[in-house]
Every structure is written in structure tokens, then in C-alpha cells.
Write a structure and sequence with these properties.
With 484 residues, the chain is α/β, with parallel strands linked by helices. It folds into 2 domains: 6-258 and 458-480, Aldehyde Dehydrogenase, Chain A, domain 1, CATH 3.40.605; 261-410 and 416-449, Aldehyde Dehydrogenase, Chain A, domain 2, CATH 3.40.309. The protein contains 15 helices and 20 strands. The chain has helices at 47-66, 69-85, 87-98, 102-122, 161-173, 186-198, 214-223, 236-247, 271-283, 300-315, 335-350, 382-385, 401-409, 424-433, 466-471, and strands at 13-15, 18-20, 27-31, 38-43, 129-131, 139-146, 149-153, 176-180, 206-208, 227-233, 252-256, 261-265, 293-299, 354-357, 372-375, 392-398, 416-420, 438-441, 460-461, 474-481. Helix 2 runs antiparallel to helix 5, helix 4 (102-122) packs parallel to helix 5 and helix 9 (271-283) packs across helix 10 (300-315). Bound molecules: NADP nicotinamide-adenine-dinucleotide phosphate. NADP nicotinamide-adenine-dinucleotide phosphate (NAP) is lined by residues 153-158, 162, 180, 182-184, 214-215, 218, 233-235, 238, 241-242, 256-259, 290, 387, 415, 455, 460.
């Protein structure tokens, strides 16, 4: 790997302000999903090291939370500047360890950094309240204070942004954090921690637990009484498990879980814009995002024309190595991911779906899958209820607005949804009818640091980004002052 600053590639992890290995020297390899080549090696930590990281975050807490928000902001702003100065290196590391096309990795490096800048500012605005009193001898106030030590567990599909979207608001609020990044993408997390260290974060404020054993480490993080808050992004299955663990000590939880995003194209939509929007939403990160369009519903009267235009546009997407500048679709993250996509497509074909383009493993081999469009997909196929997490777009047909809303809501998930329509009345009715935390209206791209990101139903609890994201790390304390 060619980096401008090779020292950003770490073989040790960051705990209590020190770069350390596992107690017994254990390590695991990080591999490039495209060719299986070893990209790096990181310490394989267990419960003992996790406990020490939690203790160090606890020791760092009193001084960190006692700083003014402006002082904390100053460290976060330095971190943001360093992240932005190292966008290219972060992008290279990210693409090599998890296969994101390099152009998108550069985008994520900036997107991830944006959360640090935003929360550096927003931390200064953790305002309290003064409540008009019910008794002239009393004054009623509300202050907001950091929750305490936070345990953050993050996925591989956004190796930087899913960390900064938690760590930045937590630190801005005055919390300290222990992060367990995904085992497929620990190198980006360590590069980010290195830059935080260079920015002057005090020892113990941020700690990284690299491990190939998520269960015992996750168990420790979600049951250790020092941890007051779990912030998790990942699958609904693991989220439920952590939530159950956290119940034992009644920890506050924020969960950003799976999605099954509907993308609805009504007959009054701008067809070409809808085609572009569907591509942007479906194929970002090679189809591996929680807000990727998972079900594309097209109104019957325009179905054939949409399918033709969409399949044509999709067939020209360039599949290739993640680090190649021209690549639009990279390899999937690992063999399991490839096999899951393959199984879902086989199931759909067996139940009567057709293939407009793609439909099988890519000639490039390894974890590459062809950019695929399936037609005549129906609700009984597994693609309708499971996250595809690959470059496969299933097209469904519907007749009426009410039917589209009912079909879209017919899932246990409720993260992102999208629709394209022209009529203003319809835009309101559909927006109000969709049971989702986020709705893209005439757009397939919705994510920034500025808005509340999160889901309803089994897609999660809580919001990240925006001022709502800061609140997730603050407790509300009521002060009742008598004798006045
Ligand atoms: P995952 O398997 O749930 O893993 C997420 C994180 O949890 C990883 O760090 C993983 O470690 C860890 N983990 C796994 N088993 C655990 C356990 N028993 N206890 C504690 N931690 C455990 O999900 P993923 O496959 O990495 O990510 C894809 C999922 O994330 C999809 O469902 C996607 O929709 C969701 N996602 C949601 C959002 C959102 O904002 N809502 C954003 C991105 C992704 P290992 O890496 O070691 O397995």
C-alpha cells in the first residue's frame, strides 16, 4: 500500500493513549477482499484488554467532561483538520481493507470528517432550560450533562463515518469512548485514532479494541457497569442481542440497524431522474449500505419503460478493483457476502423472477458479483424481506398509490425509503404514509452530517447526526431550587 504517511498504517491498537498489542501477542490479518492479499495485521484483543480500555476511559472521564465545550471543540477541530489533510491515505486504507471503490472512499473520508467538524461546533450548544415556575419560592432548571463512558460497536461498510458519527458527538458532549470497529475494517479505525492522538486528545478519551472475537468483547462492553451507553451500528440481529445484554444494567442504547429500503417510482415521476436516483441509491458502496434501495417498486403503466432504461444505464457501470479510479462497483466485502447475494438471486429466479442484466458471479472472480437487475419480482421471494447487500436491484410492479405504501411498509424494517413523484398532494400523502425514519423525495442520496439519521421499527432506536445526534450522549438533569 502506497501512503503519503505510512505511519498511519498500524499494527498495534490504541488504548489509554498508548499503541499496544494483545496481552499474549495474538494478532489477526486484514485482507483485501478482491484478491485475499494481506493488507495489514492488528492485535486480537480479548476481554482483559477490553476491561482495561473501559477503565482507562473511566479514568479520563472526570477531566474531559470538566473542560469547557470550547476546549473540547478545539481538540475536535484539530482532529477534523488532520482527517481532511489525510483524506487520500484514509481512502486508500479503506478501499484496500474492505473493497469500497476509491472515489467513494474519498467521499466517505470527507463525509466521516464532516461529523467531527459539525459536532465540534454543536457541542457548544448543549443548552439547558429554565422552566416558568409553579411556586414563587422555587426556580426550575434543566441542565444537560454527558452520559459517561460510551461503548461504540461499528460495521465495516463505512469504516470511518460510522465511527466519527458516534465518537464526535460523544466527545463533544464530554463523554469518553471505547470503540470496537469491525474486524474487516480495523485499519481505518486505527488511522483515525492516530490522527485523534496527534490532535491532542488526552489519554483514555478514545480507545480502540481490535478483535476477531466480537462475542466476548461485545459481551463485556454491553454488560460492564462502567459503560453507561451503547451506541451500535450493524445488523438487527446483533443489535437485539446487545440491547438484551444492556438491559442487565439498564444502559442507554442507540441502535442503527438494518434496512429494507423501498424505492417507489410513480407514473407522474421524472423518469430519467428516477433512473439516476435509483442507481445512486442502489449501487452505492456496491450495494452494501443500510440505506441502499432494496426493493424498487414501479407503477404498472411505466414499468416496462423504466425497466428498460434502468437496465441499460446499470449495464454500463464499471466493475473493477477498488483502488482503480474508474471503478464504480468494487468487490463485495467477503466470501460470505458473495454467497448470500448468490443465494438470494437463485431463490428469486427459482420463484419466477427474470434477469434483465447480470445475475451471476463476475468474470473477475473472488468476491465480485455482476451488476444485476431482476424483473417481475414478487413479495414471496427472499429479496423482498432480506437485506441484499450487493449490486442486485429487484423490480416490482404496483398499480395504485395505496398499494405502493402498503407494500413499502410490509417489512419489519423502517430505516430509509425513497419515492419519485410529481404531484404535491401525492408527495405529502406518501411521505406521511411511509413508516420510515428517513425519506428521499425525488432524490436517491440523503446522507449528510446535518440531519437526523436513524430508523423506526426493527431498524433501530435513536438518531445520529444533527443536534439530535448530540442529545444521544447527554442526560437531562432537573434542578429544583427552593427557598427563594
Ligand atoms: P454485524 O455483523 O452486526 O456487525 C457489526 C458490528 O458488530 C461489527 O463490529 C461486528 O464485529 C460486531 N458484532 C458481531 N457480532 C457481535 C456480537 N455477538 N456481540 C457484539 N458485537 C458483535 O453487521 P455488519 O455485517 O458488520 O454490517 C452490516 C449491517 O449493518 C447491515 O445490517 C446494515 O444494514 C447495518 N448498518 C446499519 C447502519 C445504520 O446506520 N442503520 C449503517 C451501516 C450498516 P465483527 O466485525 O468482528 O463481526
Amino acid at each position: 500500500m502506497k501512503l503519503n504517511d505510512p505511519t498511519l498504517l498500524h499494527t498495534e491498537t490504541y488504548i489509554d493513549g498508548q499503541w499496544v498489542g494483545a496481552d499474549g501477542g495474538e494478532a489477526f490479518d486484514v485482507v483485501n477482499p478482491a484478491d485475499g492479499a494481506v493488507v495489514g495485521s492488528v492485535p486480537d484483543l480479548g476481554v482483559g484488554e477490553t476491561r482495561r480500555a473501559i477503565d482507562s476511559a473511566n479514568r479520563a472521564l472526570p477531566e474531559w467532561r470538566a473542560l469547557t465545550a470550547k476546549k473540547r471543540a478545539s481538540a475536535l477541530k484539530k482532529w477534523h483538520t488532520l482527517l481532511m489533510e489525510n483524506v487520500e491515505d484514509i481512502a486508500q486504507i479503506m478501499s484496500l481493507e474492505m473493497g469500497k471503490p476509491i472515489r467513494e472512499s474519498r467521499g466517505e473520508a470527507v463525509f466521516g470528517s464532516n461529523f467531527v467538524e459539525w459536532f465540534a461546533e454543536e457541542g457548544k450548544r448543549a443548552y439547558g432550560e429554565i422552566i416558568p415556575t409553579h411556586d414563587v419560592s422555587k426556580r426550575l432548571l434543566v441542565v444537560r450533562q454527558p452520559i459517561g463512558v460510551v461503548g461504540a460497536i461499528t460495521p465495516w461498510n463505512f469504516p470511518l463515518a460510522m465511527i466519527t458519527r458516534k465518537v464526535a458527538p460523544a466527545l463533544a458532549a464530554g463523554c469518553t469512548v471505547v470503540v470496537k470497529p469491525a474486524e474487516d475494517s480495523p485499519l481505518t479505525a486505527l488511522a483515525a485514532a492516530d490522527l485523534a492522538d496527534r490532535a491532542g486528545l488526552p489519554a483514555g478519551v478514545l480507545n480502540i479494541i481490535t478483535t476477531s472475537n466480537p462475542e466476548p468483547v461485545g459481551q463485556e462492553i454491553s454488560t460492564n457497569p462502567i459503560i453507561r451507553k451503547i451506541s451500535f451500528t450493524g445488523s438487527t440481529e446483533v443489535g437485539k442481542h446487545l440491547m438484551a445484554n444492556a438491559a442487565g444494567t439498564v444502559k442507554n442504547v442507540s441502535l442503527e440497524l438494518g434496512g429494507n429500503a423501498p424505492f417507489i417510482v410513480f407514473d407522474d415521476a421524472d423518469m430519467d431522474a428516477a433512473v439516476q436516483g435509483a442507481i445512486a441509491s442502489k449501487y452505492r458502496n456496491s450495494g452494501q449500505t443500510c440505506i441502499c434501495a432494496n426493493r424498487i417498486y414501479v407503477q404498472a403503466g411505466i414499468y416496462d419503460e423504466f425497466a428498460k432504461k434502468f437496465a441499460e444505464a446499470v449495464s454500463s457501470l464499471k466493475v473493477g478493483a477498488a483502488v482503480d479510479d474508474a471503478t464504480e462497483i468494487g468487490p463485495l466485502v467477503n466470501q460470505d457476502a458473495l454467497e448470500k447475494v448468490e443465494t438470494l438471486v437463485t431463490d428469486a429466479l427459482e420463484k419466477g423472477a427474470g434477469v434483465l442484466t447480470g445475475g451471476k458471479r463476475h468474470a473477475l472472480g473472488k468476491t465480485y458479483y455482476e451488476v444485476t437487475v431482476l424483473t417481475n419480482v414478487t413479495s414471496d421471494m427472499r429479496v423482498a424481506s432480506e437485506e441484499i447487500f450487493g449490486p442486485v436491484a429487484p423490480l416490482y410492479r404496483f398499480e395504485t398509490e395505496d398499494e405502493a405504501i402498503a407494500l413499502a411498509n410490509d417489512t419489519t424494517y423502517g430505516l430509509a425509503s425513497y419515492f419519485y413523484a410529481g404531484d404535491l398532494g401525492r408527495i405529502w400523502r406518501v411521505s406521511e404514509g411511509l413508516e420510515y425514519g428517513m425519506i428521499g423525495i425525488n432524490t436517491g442520496l440523503i446522507s449528510t452530517e446535518l440531519h437526523p439519521f436513524g430508523g423506526v421499527k426493527e431498524s433501530g432506536i435513536g438518531r445520529e447526526g444533527s443536534h439530535h445526534g448530540l442529545s444521544e450522549f447527554l442526560e437531562t438533569k432537573y434542578l429544583c431550587m427552593g427557598g427563594i
